[in-house]
Amino acid sequence: MRFHASDRAEAEAWQKMAREKLLELMMGGAEPARVPLEAKILRRIASPLNGFVLEETTIQALPDRRVHLWVARPAVSHGKIGAVLALHGHGGSGEEVVRGLSLYGYGKTLIEMGYVVIAPDIGSHERQHSNWSLMGERVWDALRSLDYAATLPEVDPERLAVAGLSLGGETAMYVAALDIRVKTACSSGWLTTIENMRNGHCPCWNFEGLAEHFDFSDVFACIAPRPLVCEIGAKERAPGGFPVAIAREAFTQIESAYRVFHAESNAVLTVHQAGHVFNGRDFWPRLQSELGQAWPWNSESSDQTAELLRRGEIARRNFCRAVGVFDGWWRTRDPETGLYPRRLDQPVWAPNDNAADMLPFLALTAFYTTADRLPEVLAIIPKERALTDRVGPLPDWFGLTNHAFVYPSADMRRLIFCAAEYAKDGCLPMTEAMGRGPWVDRMIEMTDAVFEHAPVSSDFGKLPVDDTEVNGEILQVLSRLYFLTDDPKYLRWAERIGDAYCFEVLPANQFIPAQRWDFTQHRPIQDEFSLNDHGNEIVGGLSELFVATANGDRPKFERYREPLLKMAQRLLEKARHDDGLWFERVRASTGEPIDRGVPDTWGYALAGLVTLSDQMGASFGSNAVEKALLHLPQPQYLDWNGADSYADSIEGALVLLNRFAEPAGFQWLENILPIFLGKQRDDGIVEGWYGDGNYARTALMAALYYTQGVRCRPWNAALRLGAAREGDRLILQLQSDAAWNGNIMFDQPRHRLFLHLPTNYPRLNEFPEWFTVQPAARYTVKSSRGEIRELTGPELIAGVGFQLDPGESVRIQIVKK
DSSP states of 37-98 as a string? Predict the structure, then answer.
């Protein structure tokens, strides 16, 4: 019964016979009767922080068989939505799927997308009926779970899909082949042949008559012409496993079936760069196309209140994720020192990690959501300072079990790296968002110590290091400290680094800086340039120095112009894909790509080029950004390597979208955010390492975009605040599921008031300003209750009092007088 149809009518007739034969072989001779489901809910677990409810349920599959399954349903219904049958692999469970555990993060992503998710426990290796195959029992349980999904009141039975990994991918294949209600399917980690499955695989896939009638490509052919995505990882093991070469061979046969239907574009093979994992990059867009986007990701409503509340729900979820990180990591602190570990399995305080990527975003989460807890977070600064300072105020790694330095001796390169990372990634974002505080004092003392101990000799004076990462970080810190303190030494030190790059490294290396440079031999040590965040910092650092010299040292500004312009032109010419996003790494001296991947920090260097371009009065930076944002909505840019990578990619986009309102960029943002939000565990931990702090950072940044920088104090998880601009007017919609009494607090031009920057240029570690009130201005505040208030800028910044009854929704308009 191999597929050999030559036209649609012949193919449809074959599909009908193939389905009947599969049911016969798998399920005791014929498709069984569908008995009443008789669903019983065993447990109901509300998850208000996440916006959904979990139900542990059993249903009747056969007169003598019940299926155990988990269902995730939106806590609040917003019309009919689609449902996805999400299937686990060997040794997994439905609960792991809906909680996003083990290999099954796709279950959590589907929930975050707003769909109903049905996740049955797929039978392991015990068969109940002797005349059935094991796969037959598994598939029938899954089909009955789909029947149950179709009965739920919020589910549109015309919008059903299936997805699974490994055994789940195999089961998804059969479900989609046998049930034409399935609109789209994703079979991940499974596409193979019967011959390959005989090579060392668990025999539970096999049943009598299968190989005599079909190969797996024929089962997939039963799905045509409905959209199908098959996924295979490049790192799948071979022989055995699910090798890519065998998957390609099988997919060629699947394509032939889709070709008969003139639907070749509906069959997609995704070969991703990981191993035996679910990827989703090509499936998510097809799923949303077939099932429609569910609330709060469907922005089609013309009703302004509904749109603002939708934005408020997205903001709420992002704030909740940041609070989750805060609570999860706060529980890990060492009871004696009060410090938290570098990783859950590594009880070490690393200033370049713990202080750089976690501390600032625990502090900022408290600042934006639970301000009463901010002092206990900031108490970490004097604690870590007392424990970790190794050479003057330069910090080093410190063990939380033996309370001693991790390394037996001080290494100046390591200490300077620790200080640079702590200052740039830790202290700068706190300064950007909160202004002056003890973090600024810490940044100043570490920066001063870096130059006191700078060990690298050059023709321009002692430099902190010989690499683009740390020199770029230090440049960013120095430039902002120069404006913040008005101390000329910071500009002098910045110019020392700037001179070394503009007058030696760039001209000697075809105007792309080498990753490491020998400043005594005047040649590259490492002749490559990373566009990721372990090298691209020099672009942002030199751009900020250029701004600083424009306002403090005009002769040096003019001398920097030509080498920096040539650097920008060379990078734009050599280091980009055709769609405007960067290569991962290039050979610095030639611009030849070394790694053609796209860095998750693609927005960072673009921000630096915009700053350079604007300061030169040119358009190359804005043109580059607009091109990149325009091309973001592609499947490959929904696929990043872990939660921290998603966080960095979204962060860079938000910094740029703050200046360039490209619709395609905002479309991409709403497509990627549910994937990003789904990365967090129920206990608040994301991946269990210091990069979780960056996840909290980006969640806060996304939330503040949807509130346009407005925050509520006190914040709680029942509160939705959505905002949108209409010219100079800001429109807010405020709603709370519980009674709320507090203040609505507005943002201010922090770049000018806190940092004294001459312009609000794009830069790393900023928290973008959306709607800001001017301290010297007056504003009219109107609410839908009929209240009208005339308030000053400082009054709006300090907070406007409001009360809400449970479920009440209030519209607020703010207009500058």
Answer: ---EEEEEEEETTTTEEEEEEEEEEETTEEEEEEEEEESS--S-EEEEEEE--TT--HHHHH
Residue 377's region, left for phi above 0, alpha for psi from -120 to 50, else beta, is alpha
Structure tokens of 340?
């938290």
CB 185 within 8 A of CB 95: no
| Cβ within 8 Å of residue 302, ≥6 positions away | none
Bridge-partner residues for 688, per DSSP?
none
> What secondary structure does DSSP assign to 258-277, as a single string?
HHHTT-GGGEEEEEESSSSS
Rounded to whole angstroms, the Cα distance separating 290 from 280 reads 15
What percent of the chain stands above pLDDT 90? 95
Which residues pair with residue 723 across a beta bridge? 732
Helix 554-574 and helix 488-500: axis angle, to 10°?
40
Pick from 45-59, 323-337, 566-580, 687-701: least confident:
45-59
What does 629-645 look like in DSSP terms, one character per residue?
HHT--SGGGG--SSHHH
First to last CA, the chain: 77
**Furthest-apart CA atoms within the chain: distance in Å:** 89
518 Rama sector, left if φ>0, alpha if ψ -120 to 50, beta otherwise: beta
- Could you tell me where the DSSP H helices lie in 188-343? 194-197, 210-213, 216-221, 244-260, 283-291, 304-330
Residues in the chain: 817
- Decide: 659 and 653 in contact? Cβ < 8 Å: no
Q: How far is CA 494 from the centre of its chain?
A: 33
Contact by Cβ (8 Å): 86, 117:
yes
**Closest by alpha carbon to 148, among 178, 191, 99, 181?**
181
pLDDT value at residue 51: 86
Query: Would the pLDDT of 524 be above 80?
Result: yes
What is the strand order of the sheet 52-62 is part of?
40-47, 52-62, 65-74, 116-120, 81-87, 155-165, 182-188, 228-233, 267-272
567 close to 513: Cβ distance less than 8 angstroms: yes
- Report whether pLDDT(454) > 90: yes
Token pair 């490994």 in the structure block, residue: 166
Phi, psi values for residue 353, rounded to 5°: -120, -65
Secondary structure class of 13 (helix, strand, coil) = helix
Query: With 80 as the cut, is the pLDDT of residue 49 above it?
Result: no
Task: Tokens 């070490």: give the residue.
Answer: 348
What backbone torsions phi and psi does residue 298 show, to the nearest 5 degrees?
-100, 110
pLDDT tens digits along 396-426: 999 999 999 999 999 999 999 999 999 999 9
Cβ–Cβ < 8 Å for 373, 380: no
Question: Both tokens of residue 734?
Answer: 């405020």
- Give 641-644's long-range contacts (Cβ < 8 A, gap of 24+): 641/274, 641/600, 642/679, 642/687, 642/691, 643/676, 643/679, 643/680, 643/686, 643/687, 643/691, 643/692, 643/695, 644/600, 644/687, 644/691, 644/692, 644/694, 644/695
Task: Please state, in angstroms and rounded to a whole number, the distance separating the CA atoms of residues 657 and 729.
Answer: 19
Task: Give the single-character DSSP code of 8.
Answer: H
